[in-house]
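Input sequence (68 aa), recorded before submission:
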Amino acid sequence: MRLLKSAARSIITVSGASFLPGAAWACPGCMVGDPKTAGTYFGMTVVMSALPILLVCGLGYWLWRRYQ
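Predicted structure, token format:
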């Protein structure tokens, strides 16, 4: 019963958030604002996207080297 209430609450929250697409306009506005900063925003997007992948790969490499 408790799991059902939790699942229902999650579904209601997600469906409620899907009706707020206006909040998603923040990212395209960054690139349009100033052409000089577009490269910086793109670079930071690449860094923030690659960082978790590199951390997981680095941890895997470290564990592989440690237990070899």
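Checked by second reader. The CA atoms of residues 58 and 64 lie 10 Å apart.
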